[in-house]
Automatic annotation (TrEMBL):
One of its GO terms (cellular component) is endomembrane system. This is Glycosyltransferase 2-like domain-containing protein. It is found in: Endomembrane system. It is a multi-pass membrane protein.
Amino acid sequence: MVFITLSVNLMLLTYLAAFYYLKTACSLRKKHISYVSSTCQLPFVTIAIPSYNEGEEVVYAVERALSLDYPNFEVILVDDSDENASLKALERLRAMYANNPRLKVIHRSFREGFKGGALNEALKHADPRSKLLVVFDVDFRYQRSFLKEAVLELLAEKAHALQGYQCHVAEKSFLSAWYTSSIIAADYRVWLYASEVLNGFKWVTGSAFVIDIEKLREVGLFTGALTEDVDISCRMALKGFKISYSDNVVAYGKPPLNFASLIKQQMRWIEGTVRELRRHMLDLLLTNRLSFFQKLDVIAYFLQYASYLLIASCIVLLLAYHTLHGITLSILSLLSILALAPLARVFVGLVKDYGFSIGCIRGMLSYVVIACLLIPIGAYSVLRGLFAKKWQWYRTVKSIT
């Protein structure tokens, strides 16, 4: 029984490792870029900024959004704050922009639907002319050209949603900052980029994305899921709507403030992603709107998060197997190949962001240390994603830079 269970776990991890190697290799290829004229008619855009107890950060977030170089847009801040400091910042913001027709400030006294509910609230107040929704988390920074570049690329790709690169540059020498930088680079610059090259399964990731409002309404808007972005991406895919990813459209986010915030963030991501993929998996595998490769890619995407449970199980099973039979050279060789797969992906992602520098070494070391520490916590989060019926959404406290 130990051998059979161990074999199944190793087979699933081998499947995931194969995708790691495939996508790492394909991420080195250059993607053909489509273009549309920058003089074409640009659609009206609604920028939604959901916030919860962000203090003065909301003021800066709105300032950045209003300064974007784009002819037709509005900014809607939907705030769920219940702290006095954040509520005062909200009042100051209202006073500062009382005469600015581009800004709408909405405060909810309840958090129904969490972030997804806040985004739906923004759509209720959106200008009737609005064709596209752009979402920014409060901490994100970007060039003034971000919006125009994102919209032009969306139009060029004939996509219904476009995810930009959420770059998290580690400006401080904290393990949590470097770990965040490494996994973000691996997920975007390698996994999502390769999915774009290979026409695999793609998804929006919560911030720095643009989405067609008509298609969004057609799939039923956002839900109150822990990872509303994964849920909406699955429902978009099931309708046959195209999601694209672009390395050229970049926004800069902040890493979690400390190790505790990082752990909470990772637990939310793992639990939420596993839950939403579990809910939609059968439909995604049976639909004729996804290609065979995209279905294989969805499985690999699920295993990427479920791997915490698989690895934890493998450790226990290997200890039991070693006690009974010993570990053979072939098993050790397989384990080495499996261990190198995520390291290769992270390394290439870091090289794309930092070049061959000390940053790569810091990122790799941080990734190895924290990834190992996350195994039991991640395994618990996977189990919650598979079986828990209730959950609580919590805000990630970000670093101050």
